[in-house]
Amino acid sequence: MLRWLARELVRSGYDARAIARLILNSHAYQRATDRTLAATSPLFIAPAPRRISAEQLVDSLFAATGKPFAVEPVNLDLDSVRTIENALDLGTACRAWMLASTSNERDRPSLMLPRMQAVSEVLEVFGWRAARPDPGAGVRDVDANVLQPALLSNGTMMSWLTRLSDDHGVTRLALDAASPAQFVDRLFVRFFTRHATKAEAEFYAQALQAGFARRIVSMTAPAAPASAPHRKYVAWSNHMKSEANSLRLEEEAAARRGDPPTARLAPEWRRRCEDVLWALLNAPEWTEIL
Hints:
Layout (H helix, E strand, L loop, with lengths): L1 H10 L4 H9 L25 E2 L2 H12 L7 E3 L13 E4 L21 H12 L21 H8 L1 H7 L6 H8 L3 H13 L5 H12 L32 H16 L9 H15 L6 E2 L1
Antiparallel strand pairs: 1-4, 2-3
Helix pairs in contact: 3-4, 5-6, 8-9
């Protein structure tokens, strides 16, 4: 097989996209998952179901909902006072795999990064290893545990994803939908890359029917937020001061609150829609690749 692919690569003029197209359009690649298999056969009769990785899960949740992945810069030396030998700046993460350990908060609460911690606690219960240099980082415990549904149901990160704020992708879908049935179908295609079954479509459309025609409060774009006043921040140079802990606790409380709900949807219907969104984001389909 590899020799044949190598010849095809040469024949295509070393066109990597042509080889990718050949593989992705093959019958072997497109075979459906066999739920009866415990492991994929060496002959690849069909792929076996497997647990989704921690990073895949978190990135998929943010991508499907359209909620921006907004966490603090992965940097404890914001004012650059540490020497180059002790400095560590991993930049501003836009994907889950870009995060690293937040272990500084164990003995120094003033150095915790609350938004990043809300995401990393979900990653950790799904087997993520925070320490990148760890030689065992590739060996993960991917078995199901009781903390996984608990954090997906009630965790801080999930509260961001289920609240329809102005920057939420589902808010835009809700504003543009022509009917509850169309809205539900768009959600299923966006979340599960499939259409809802007849029973699912009827159940969720009925849940969203009441107040749907009056759901839009205003079609005007939300006003641009006023520039925030200058506020103090915690960095390596001042994290030992007593005020630093208070500032971090305020940031943690703000992270738990999350963004305010949008004012463009009627509150009663918005809360009903958030219940539907919560139910869909806690479906078993999120944790397995079939």
